[in-house]
Write a structure and sequence with these properties.
about 5% strand, four-stranded mixed sheet, about 70% helix, mainly alpha
Length: about 400
């Protein structure tokens, strides 16, 4: 295990890099986390929202009427991009899109979701979600006691009675214990995206430092003279690389869990899918980093590449800014990197008012793509390493 030990010895000399990443990570977590603590009362504040009702059915229009009762609805017809701009300029809190097929999905027994546009980590997003859940739950009660499916008169009666009941409930009671957990889930998933980006950055840093040192001609000759075969050298390098990144991923996850106090959330499906996506992203990012190391293979050029590359991935994939602000061509180009697919799945989960089949499908698709990327970058790394280290004539 000489290569294995040498790898970690080289990495240990760069503890300062790790602490720098850790401090940056903690800063981002504390800046973005707005968790509802268990020992605090949830205070409701009316949200200023813009609604795009693409369904235009009695059920969706009843939901819009509910929001008019509970919140401040701004009567504007805006595109999704205009919603994003308005929310970030604080013209309103959130944009809400009721998708076409919302009513059909509900009456088929599915759980329709709404797309929330704007600051996705605001408490108001969870409150808006709680209102929609309350509205659909009451409609379901009327549906169960009347004709199934409801006819036009039955639907109109159910909607009118639901609005009366909803109007009679104090606003501060809408967000129940389940809603608080949803708020914590959103606050947990957001920093998880920052953590995954940090894993990619650290993989480039640590793997680049260690592998370029070990693969130097003088070091390789000493390794060969000690009787190490090429296969064993490669095996220990790969094992050390993936083990290092797995340990770092676990360390940052434990730190995030302690900060958020969110161990109880691990039983929730959206958290389990987000963690699985994060873990697969770590493996894929490690393969990508190995490929980049052998692609450049020069310390000076690699450091410059690392800085530009990580910033490009961060902004093009939507880690630090909403993807709506990114040029479509740049955003499409970033789809060749695993971070793009990981952030896409996380964003789909956070933007929806309910975690359902559509969000699960998004995670499944993203995880599958990242697994394929991991395999592709891994094979390319083996080919590129063989080319780089071939005997010179």
């Amino acid at each position: 295990m000489k290569i294995f030990k040498l790898f970690f010895k080289i990495v240990s000399r760069n503890k300062g890099v790790f602490f720098l990443y850790f401090v940056i990570f903690l800063s981002l977590v504390f800046l973005t986390t707005k968790v509802t603590k268990k020992d605090k009362v949830v205070e409701y504040t009316q949200a200023k929202i813009v609604i795009d009702d693409q369904d235009q059915t009695p059920l969706s229009q009843g939901l819009v009427d509910l929001y008019r009762m509970k919140d401040t609805v701004i009567d504007k017809t805006l595109t999704r991009q205009e919603m994003v701009d308005g929310a970030y300029q604080y013209e309103f809190d959130l944009g809400l899109v009721i998708p076409k097929g919302f009513s059909d999905s509900f009456y088929k027994g599915d759980q329709p979701s709404l797309e929330v546009v704007g600051n996705l980590y605001e408490k108001n997003q969870v409150l808006v979600q709680a209102q929609a859940d309350q509205y659909l739950s009451l409609i379901s009660v009327f549906q169960a006691t009347q004709k199934d499916p409801l006819d036009a008169d039955g639907e109109d009666y159910a909607i009118r009675q639901t609005l009366k009941i909803a109007d009679s409930k104090p606003l501060g009671k809408i967000l129940d214990e389940e809603g608080r957990n949803d708020a914590k889930a959103v606050a947990f998933i957001g920093p998880l995206g920052f953590m995954d980006y940090g894993i990619l950055s650290m993989a480039l840093s640590f793997l680049g430092i260690a592998i370029m040192e070990i693969e130097k001609d003088t070091v390789r000759k000493r390794i060969q003279m000690s009787g190490y075969s090429e296969v064993r050298t490669l095996g220990e390098l790969l094992l050390a690389s993936f083990l290092l990144m797995s340990v770092l991923w676990l360390f940052f996850l434990i730190a995030l869990t302690i900060i958020e106090g969110s161990l109880d959330l691990y039983g929730r499906p959206q958290i389990r899918w987000a963690l699985l996506s994060s873990f697969v992203h770590m493996l894929s990012a490690t393969s990508l980093s190995l490929f980049c190391v052998y692609l450049l293979f020069q310390k000076r050029s690699f450091k410059f590449f690392q800085t530009i590359f990580t910033l490009l991935v961060a902004f093009a994939s939507g880690v630090f800014i909403d993807r709506s602000f990114v040029d479509t061509r740049l955003h499409a180009m970033s789809s060749i990197f695993p971070t793009y697919w990981n952030i896409e799945a996380i964003s789909d989960s956070v933007q929806s008012t309910r975690f359902g089949p559509d969000q699960v499908a998004s995670f499944e698709r993203s995880i599958l793509v990242m697994v394929l990327m991991m395999a592709a970058y891994f094979v390319l790394t083996l080919i590129l390493r063989r080319y780089r280290l071939r005997p010179q004539k």
